[in-house]
């Protein structure tokens, strides 16, 4: 099942586009899940899908509740949270570089997130 999730963001100017995005996804006949919890925020720049699992950056734009809703929506995939420092997005310092390969930057926030995630995984 292919599914797209329409999210809440703390940036109000982005929430204005929700109706347009929903209309476009409906035209593609995709299954749409709307995140209606007012306490949940989830920004696309904080979500990295590897094909097998999701990494969700907890940042100024994405919170734990948003990550929980993503996990509830995509129950067949593991969802791991990664703390993101400063005003960055998760994808500001990491992205998929190929099958089974995540590229992570050398900046201090990137390395800190890597260390935290490594401790959680091993």
TrEMBL record:
Any one cellular-component term (Gene Ontology): mitochondrion
Domain of life: Eukaryota
Coiled-coil spans in chain: 11-38
Molecular-function annotations in GO: amino acid binding; dimethylargininase activity
Gene Ontology process terms (BP): arginine metabolic process; citrulline metabolic process; positive regulation of nitric oxide biosynthetic process
Gene3D superfamilies: L-arginine/glycine Amidinotransferase, Chain A
InterPro entries reported for this sequence: DDAH-like
Keyword set, alphabetical order: Coiled coil, Hydrolase
Pfam families: ADI
Family to which this protein belongs: Belongs to the DDAH family.
Protein name (Swiss-Prot/TrEMBL): Uncharacterized protein
């Amino acid at each position: 099942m292919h599914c797209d999730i329409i999210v809440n963001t703390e940036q109000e100017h982005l929430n204005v586009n929700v109706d347009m995005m929903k209309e476009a996804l409906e035209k593609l006949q995709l299954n749409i899940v709307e995140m209606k919890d007012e306490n949940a925020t989830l920004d696309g720049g904080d979500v990295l899908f590897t094909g097998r699992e999701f990494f969700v950056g907890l940042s100024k734009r994405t919170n734990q509740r948003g990550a929980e809703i993503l996990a509830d929506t995509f129950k067949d995939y593991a969802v791991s949270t990664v703390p993101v420092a400063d005003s960055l997005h998760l994808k500001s310092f990491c992205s998929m570089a190929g099958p089974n390969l995540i590229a992570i930057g050398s900046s201090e926030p990137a390395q800190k997130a890597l260390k935290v995630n490594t401790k959680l995984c091993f």
